[in-house]
Structures are given as C-alpha cells and as structure tokens.
Amino acid sequence: MWHDMFAQQIPFAEKIVRTVLVYILIALLLRATGKRGLAGLNSLDIVVMVLLSNVVQNAIIGNDNSLTGGAIGAVTLVAVNSVVNRVAIRSDLASRIFDGTDTVVIESGDIVQRAARRIGLRRLELDHAVRLQNGDDIRQVETGVLDAGGQFVLTLKAAEQGATKGDVEALRAQLNRIEALVTGRSSSI
What is the DSSP string of 18-72? Predict the structure, then answer.
C-alpha cells in the first residue's frame, strides 16, 4: 500500500511537461472564450470549469495514480501560474496576451452591440452592472468598460451622478461663508 502511494509510474520530467502543456491549453481556451471574472461566471460557465478539470486530469497525471505524481502535477500547476502572473505584471505585452485588453461595451448610453456580442455579454448582465454602480438605466452611462480582469467600470453621465457627502459638505461650507459675508454686510449697512 505505501509503496503504491509514492511510486511514480511515469517519469518526473514527463509529468512536468504534461502539466505545463495542459496549463497552456486551458489558459488559451479560457482566454479565447471571454473575460468574465469569477464573479461574472454563470451556472453554465461553472459547469464547464468543473468538467474541464475532470477532462484534463488524465492528460496531466497520465497513468500515474500515486500521491507523488499528483503532488508533482499540483506543484507544477501552482509554479507555472505564479511565473505567468509575475511575467504578466512586469510586461505589458504579456499582460495583453494573458489578460487581454479593456473593451468598451457602453458609449453615451448605448450598448456597443458588436463588442457585447464578441465577449458574450447579455443585456441582463449590463443592466445588473449599472444597478450595482448606482445607475438605474444604461442610458445614464457615459462609458461602460469591461476591463481585462472581467470587472465592469462604469462612468455615469455628469447629470446622472449623485452628490457625495463630501460634495454636500463642501456646498454647506460655501453657503456658510456666503451667509457670513451677507450677514456681515447687512449689519454694516
């Protein structure tokens, strides 16, 4: 029993190469299918993610069912991912390749249909993103961008933006100064 848990059935180097190749394949597939971050996954996306892990398992470990073989695959996946993330942070080109670029999906209150279709966004998802960022309707949005990480960044039209507590405090202070000036002048007249 103990021997089978730790005895490798395929060579160490083959295990690493298999893992790296599967990592590259999955990264390319996910990159090609869109920009959704984990928060933006729908139930069908989650089903695909779960099934993908099962489908590629044997491609990574081969006929090796040992604990050592699984550990080598896991360590290789984490190491490759760490290296890719570090390279993407340091290089704009690598970042564009692995993460993609921002995509404008709303301009001047209108959905950019071609961009929305290309990245697989539905009207319902855009409406939800607008509501999450204090808008009521897409027509209130000046620009809506799906960033490379899969997050929506919306800028409401100036007329649609609400005042913050800081804005109200600044107005209150300005009114107090005006009141002091008016009060000071009226008492001197």
Answer: HHHHHHHHHHHHHHHH----GGG--HHHHHHHHHHHHHHHHHHHTT--SHHHHHH
144: CB partners within 8 A, 6+ apart: 104, 105, 106, 107, 126, 129, 130, 138, 152, 153, 154, 155
| Distance of alpha carbon 183 from the chain centroid | 55
**Cβ–Cβ under 8 Å, residues 158 and 150:** no
Query: What's the mean pLDDT when you consider all of the chain?
Result: 82
Task: Name the pLDDT band for 80 (thresholds 50, 70, 90).
Answer: very high
Give the CB-side neighbour count of residue 75, counting CA atoms within 13 A.
Answer: 9
Q: Which residues contact 4 (CB under 8 A, 6 or more apart)?
A: 65, 66
**What's the CA gap between 97 and 50, in Å, rounded?**
24
Percent of the chain with pLDDT over 70: 89
Residues 149, 23, 81, CA angle at the centre, nearest 5°? 55
d(Cα 12, Cα 30) in Å, to the nearest integer?
27
Going from the N-terminus, what domains does the chain have, and what CATH number goes with each?
2-99 (no CATH), 103-156 (3.30.240.20)
